[in-house]
Design goal:
Chains A, B: One of its GO terms (molecular function) is DNA binding. The structure is a homodimer. Chain A contains ten helices and six strands. Chain A is an alpha/beta fold and about 220 residues long. Chain A folds into two domains: about 10-130, Rossmann fold (3-Layer(aba) Sandwich), CATH 3.40.50.2300; about 135-215, Winged helix-like DNA-binding domain superfamily/Winged helix DNA-binding domain (Arc Repressor Mutant, subunit A), CATH 1.10.10.10. Chain A has a six-stranded parallel sheet, with helices on both faces. In chain A, helix 4 crosses helix 6, helix 7 (about 160-170) crosses helix 9 and helix 8 (about 175-185) crosses helix 9. The first copy, chain A, binds a DNA duplex (30 and 30 nucleotides) through helix 7 and helix 9.
Chain lengths: ~220, ~220
DNA sequence: GCATCACTATACCCTAATGGGTAGTGGTTG
DNA sequence: CAACCACTACCCATTAGGGTATAGTGATGC
């Protein structure tokens, strides 16, 4: 499986919903002998399929995509048995995103605003099996590790089920249990159960805290 | 000033902090005879300088940039006397961003995830003096215009007394009446009264709505 | 095939928190 | 003095949150 030797270039699969950015990356990689763009995908689902078909050495994965988000895609890829390098490639420098990516088996986290030459350099490092993280994120990461000690249960969207996320969204819109129930066409009691569960999972003590957290974390998607 | 005739291509200045995306756009425009990339800038300040130096027919302007943000750059360009077309080019489909851009004199609002061919088509429309907006945003825009009419009583912090604002801040932090009372050293009953009053003044129906509104309006300062 | 687990949904019970109403006190200010 | 604000008190109906229990479904594992 070691394709990072001298004569064969490292194959790369790019999963990103921005066609223009894909062009930019494609053009960048064309100039490099040792890096080869093996495939592109504009949707996570297509990317996951291509990953098993092409079995690339590494995958560049956008974090912010419509529908299935980057973390979910990352999980799906690993669950599918993909063992190559996965590098998150995104604009988000939010601590939660970085931490969530690394926790879920990402081998790198590069920001889209980085210099192309620097990016090529970083991708070579990845091909060699090293972990890469955009320089501007290292401080943030250190912070995350520090706070990890003091806060063993950091709220994380990804610990919630789909239904719980739905409830959280409505809750963050200011709706009461009764209104949420009516909107989702379930009983109020059921809504209460979901609220109870998500509060426990997020380690919060009231719907107000949950709403505030959701709004600040941008869980309105 | 009319450079949109048949023989001379429309000149474009691209202001975006993502080098890779700039490459993608550059490559895309190279293929078109009637569109010419006159210059690129990775920072808003450089872009503003280039705008006056090159006086391009249109400017593609990223909304999310470090330091000076896109709206501020847009304002600066107009204040500087730039009279060409300015098209916001961004990933953000937030209503406020779109509205703010258009209010401040943008001639278009395109999303970065659009199809390259579609993008070229749109840019040609801009060169012809038309206003372009990504299709997926039209519904959102209609919504914005509608809500503008139907909300004669927009919640306003300034109708609140100092004390009520204090209470609102604590409420927006997720605190219960009891905790707010303890923190401000007053009885829970008093807190209830203040909450009651501020809900009435803001025309909201629950503390959750108030908390969400406060967070979104940035009343934590 | 069967056991198990996670998720969703429902029901019932109970306590605490919330929102609204009325009413009163003391202080400040126009 | 009247108007407003901050504060307190009491009552009442609704809402919210937690506990326990039951049940159907779909996915996973042996």
């Amino acid at each position: 499986m070691n394709r990072t030797d001298h004569d064969t270039p490292a194959t790369i699969l790019l999963i990103d919903d921005h066609p223009l950015l894909r062009r930019g990356v494609a053009q960048l990689l064309e100039l490099e002998d040792d890096l080869e763009l093996a495939g592109e995908a504009g949707e996570p689902e297509v990317g996951i399929r291509l990953a098993s078909e092409l079995d690339p050495d590494m995958i560049l994965l956008d974090l912010n995509m419509p529908g299935m988000d980057g973390i979910a895609t990352l999980k799906a890829l690993r669950e599918q048995g993909y063992a190559g390098r996965i590098v998150m490639f995104t604009v988000s420098d939010h601590e939660e995103d970085v931490v969530a990516a690394l926790r879920n088996g990402a081998d790198g986290y590069l920001l889209k605003d980085m210099d192309p030459d620097e990016m090529v350099r970083q991708l070579r490092q990845v091909a060699l099996g090293r972990m890469v993280i955009s320089e501007s994120l290292t401080a943030l990461l250190a912070e995350a590790l520090r706070s990890q000690r003091n806060q063993p249960a950091a709220p994380d969207i990804h610990s919630l089920t789909q239904r719980e996320r739905e409830i959280l969204c409505e809750l963050a819109a200011g709706l009461s249990n009764k209104l949420i129930a009516r909107k989702l066409d379930i009983t109020e009691g059921t809504v209460k159960v979901h609220v109870k569960h998500l509060l426990k999972k997020l380690n919060l003590r009231s719907r107000v805290e949950a709403a505030v957290w959701a709004v600040q974390a941008g869980v309105d998607k």
